[in-house]
Amino acid sequence: MAAPFTRVCRPLWRIITTTTLNKGARNISSSRQQWSAQNVKTAVAASPWALHGAVCLQRLPVVSQDRSPIEEEFMELMHQMELERSLLSDHELRLLEDAARMSRKQEEDYDSDEEDEDYRDKEIVTAQDLEDTWEQKLKQFQPAPRSQGVDKKDMGSSELCLADSLILLVKKDVGSQKLWLLPQIQWQMGETLRQTAERALASLPGADLKATFLGNAPCGFYKYKYPKDIQKEDSVGAKVFFFKAVLSGHKHLPLEKNSFAWVKKDELQDFLKPEYLKQVRRFIMAL
Amino acid sequence: MAGIVCRTVNRIISSQASCSTSMVAVRHSHWFTSVLSLKTSMPLRAEPKKKKKVDPRREIMMKERLKKKLKRLEKVPPELIPIEDFITPAKCFDETRIRDAPKLSFEESERRALLLKEWSRYKYAQHQTEMDAIKEALEAQRQALDELKLESEELYKAAVSPDTDIFPFQHEGPSYTPPITNYEAPEGKYNNITRVYTQ
Predict the structure, then answer these.
(1) A158, A209 Cβ separation under 8 angstroms
(2) H or E stretch including A211?
């Protein structure tokens, strides 16, 4: 009779503990109480998890990626084929005419009266001259270099690899260890998880980052159990829900090197724990 | 009309009574051609007064007919606005503009064919990786939502509700070189020669 007795006993105990011990970690809403009374099994398994909201802040690429060798070859081929199949443009026709006229001038029996009326006496600006002037003008403009001369070791700067999308990582104390994580914060009662994620972003010390959150739904989750000595009946572990956000605005102050890092997807494995990494990699798309 | 006749008769009788000494029949008004026959006077006999109902109706009918004719003329469908992009300009049919097609060597044509096949394979592999990445991300999201549902219904409903603030979403895509800080682009002049059509 032990089994049915415990099954009857547990919901009562749960209701008592939820009303008396007001633990912030657990969700205490009236709907939850009814629900937990009905589905006992899942209530016991799900309720002892602490909820956290985390933000996966991405700085999207600023500069286009370099072409791979096959892409370079194909681009050359396409340019060639396009040139072969096209018609002559006005500028090209003009170039040809000028060339023909020059060659006629060089001949011995050149008679300037045979030329067209328009080109007889005027000083002509040849198309070649125009091309040269355009080249000169282009050289006057100095574009910014593609790879900013930022030291590769300085992970705190968001100007690192302009051609890739970077993720923000934060070094945090979890229990006794210092771990690199995506910025996360504990969920409080009365707010949605997205607001938790926004709070997590705002509460980063020294960072004035403006981000646009992409939607209300989380993009991934990670659950872990606390080590055995901290585990209690009502706090087995924690669930972290990740929300995607895109960094908006250009210049940002460089962040502290030791606690912040902007990392590419390939470099994530140097920073994150394997289990955590496995879950996080699923929703980060570095295309 | 009868009233006017009566009044004129009275006047005549009174006038006749006043100048009863002269027995000559005096015409007091040029409208009375004969004194005895008073009942028909010129205004009564004149034709133009017979306008009544027929003419206004005829006028209205005429106006309606004209309006119908106008409507029929106006029913012509409006001229379609030509799409400039679909009309090849006359310049392209100029024969002097045709390039001499270069003769490709056998090796060159072989190289091109092989490169095209290589490219299709590369693009297919790229597409497959993209699709797999998208599927993986969707799966991760689905599982996250399932877990959230297990946790609490409220939070799940909040997560699944549509977000009205994202759109319109704007983001500057990647360019070839990064933007120069504090750059002032020079003002450019241009003449807009697009043709505007009205229907």
Answers:
(1) no
(2) strand A211-213
Burial of A52 (0-12, 13-18, 19+ CB in 10 A): buried
B66, containing H or E segment = helix B54-74
Rg (CA), chain B: 50
CB-hemisphere CA count at 13 Å for B159? 27
Say how many residues make up chain A: 287
What distance in Å separates the CA atoms of residue A113 and residue A128, rounded to the nearest whole number?
Answer: 24
Partner B contacted by A214 (CB < 8 A): yes
Structure tokens, B107: 């090796």
**Considering the entire predicted model, what is its pTM?**
0.67
Residue A214: count of CB within 10 angstroms of its CB: 16
Q: Which two tokens stand for residue B94?
A: 């100029």
The C-alpha atoms of residue A198 and residue A211 are separated, in whole angstroms, by 9
Q: Which two tokens stand for residue A41?
A: 């099994």
pLDDT tens profile B47-68 = 666 666 778 889 999 999 999 9
Residue A260: partners with Cβ closer than 8 Å, 6 or more residues away: A155, A156, A168, A169, A170, A171, A204, A207
pLDDT at A114: 66
Q: Which of A165, A282, A268 is nearest to B132 (CA)?
A: A282
Rounded to whole angstroms, the Cα distance separating A243 from A214 reads: 8
Q: Residue B151: its chain A contacts at CB < 8 A?
A: 27, 46, 49, 51, 239
Indicate the pLDDT class of residue A45, thresholds 50, 70 and 90: very low
Among A residues 27-86, those touching chain B with beta carbons less than 8 Å apart = 27, 29, 31-32, 35, 42, 46, 49, 51, 60-65, 70-71, 73-74, 77, 81, 84, 86
- Output DSSP code: residue A228: T
Q: Hey, which residues does B175 pair with through a beta bridge?
A: A63
A155-173 pLDDT, tens digit each: 667 777 888 888 888 888 8
Give dist(CA A98, CA A92) in Å, integer: 10
Give the one of A73, A144, A216 whose C-beta lies nearest to B178's C-beta. A144
- The interface predicted TM-score of the complex, written ipTM, equals 0.72
